[in-house]
Design goal:
This is AraC family transcriptional regulator. The protein contains 18 helices and no strands. It is an all-alpha fold and about 375 residues long. The chain folds into 2 domains: about 1-235, Rhodopsin 7-helix transmembrane proteins (Rhopdopsin 7-helix transmembrane proteins, Up-down Bundle), CATH 1.20.1070; about 250-375, Homeodomain-like (Arc Repressor Mutant, subunit A). The N and C termini lie far apart (about 65 Å).
């Protein structure tokens, strides 16, 4: 009885927080409306899925209860589309995305003749033997395959988006991509535990399954609180990238296949000299939102050629290339005894950073010291 009450309490709290965060995401003023709505949809699906545990409170019919349980098939597709929308600024929902609902439709069509369309007595018999019913076993296999595929797909999207970001942007949004990666890891861990819970459910140790179930609800509540904290403190958490941008390795591959190099050695040296002179004279790195497109327009070198020049020829991501200039500028300020009263926070904003953590990470990577320690040893 105490276990049931605990589960119901956790469920109610999680549902309330999920719906509250959904309302916040839908109503908050932001440029990323689609991303917010997709995550709100994911949270609403989560709340609906959790509501199954409150069957005694809501008195759901068997058909509704089973139908709601199949909403799980929509949760990971919703999260995957959310990841796409966060990563790419020009992402839009299209008719082709309806294909993500196929597992959900398949699961319900399988249950139609053997459960939904039969009388109450047959339904009860079906539930009593559910662990041995081929339809239920098929749906369990389907959901586990879906979990695996969508988790892999989400990580592949994040990996590609991070590489494109590093090759084309210089802002602090890389921290946001790292956070989204961490959030995806947390969700992956959650679904892996859920997988083991389902395995134990069909063994001679159902108590292990119930214990894991309670643990999952605690973990789910923590994940949602974590996201709520981030959302409230960073309402414009992510800066998207353009999906039309290509990885340098793909550009080089295309150039080789067409038997045409982007720039020859003489042009490369000329472009490099022009780029370095521009960086020294104009100091564009002071702009925290600087992109490779901005520099391309300023020095009149095509984005493709400039991208190959920096990311391939110099063997540096654009992100690191710009940060090198920012760190050199910060080092000069720290060395200047006339500016000894200028704080590290003022310096990081002055040289183009807008995140203390990214500044400290970049500075230590470049010098081996934190900014504060570097100032002390001078």
């Amino acid at each position: 009885m105490e276990k049931i009450n605990l589960l119901a309490t956790i469920s109610v709290i999680t549902i309330f927080i999920s719906l509250f965060l959904s309302f916040f995401l839908v109503t908050v003023k932001t440029e990323h409306k689609l991303s917010n709505r997709l995550f709100a949809f994911f949270l609403i699906l989560t709340a609906i899925d959790i509501s199954i545990n409150l069957v005694d409170l809501f008195k759901f019919s068997l058909n509704i209860r089973i139908f709601i349980s199949t909403f799980f098939f929509l949760q990971l597709p919703a999260f995957y589309l959310y990841v796409l929308s966060v990563c790419y600024s020009d992402f839009k929902l299209k008719p082709k995305h309806l294909a993500h609902s196929i597992p959900f439709l398949t699961a319900n069509l399988i249950l139609l003749p053997c459960f939904y369309a039969v009388n109450l007595t047959s339904k009860i018999k079906f539930l009593e033997k559910s662990s041995s019913m081929p339809e239920v076993q098929f749906n369990h296999i389907l959901v586990h395959v879906q979990i695996l595929l969508y988790i892999i797909a989400a990580f592949m999207i994040l990996r590609k988006a991070k590489k494109i970001y590093l090759e084309n942007y210089s802002g602090a949004s890389i921290e946001s991509l790292k956070w989204l990666f961490q959030f995806t890891v947390a969700l992956s861990f959650f679904f892996i535990i859920a997988l083991f819970k389902n395995i134990f459910k069909f063994t001679e140790q159902p108590n292990v399954s119930e214990s894991l179930k309670i643990g999952l609800f605690f973990f789910q509540l923590i994940i949602i609180f974590w996201y709520l904290y981030k959302a409230l403190n960073n309402p414009s958490l992510f800066r998207n990238i353009d999906s039309k941008l290509k990885l340098v390795e793909d550009i080089i591959f295309e150039e080789k296949n067409s038997s045409q190099l982007a720039i020859n050695e003489k042009e490369y040296n000329s472009a490099l000299l022009k780029l370095k002179q521009y960086m020294i004279d104009e100091k564009p790195f002071h702009n925290p939102s600087l992109t490779i497109q901005d520099i391309s327009a300023a020095i009149e070198i095509p984005v493709r050629d400039l991208s190959i020049l920096i990311n391939h020829k110099l063997e540096q991501h654009f992100y690191d290339f710009i940060n090198t200039y920012r760190i050199e500028s910060a080092m000069n300020i720290l060395k200047d005894t006339a500016k000894s009263k200028v704080t590290v926070l003022e310096i990081l904003y002055d040289v183009g950073f807008n995140s203390k953590s990214s500044f400290n990470t970049a500075f230590k990577k470049h010098t081996g010291y934190t900014p504060t320690d570097y100032r002390k040893i001078l």
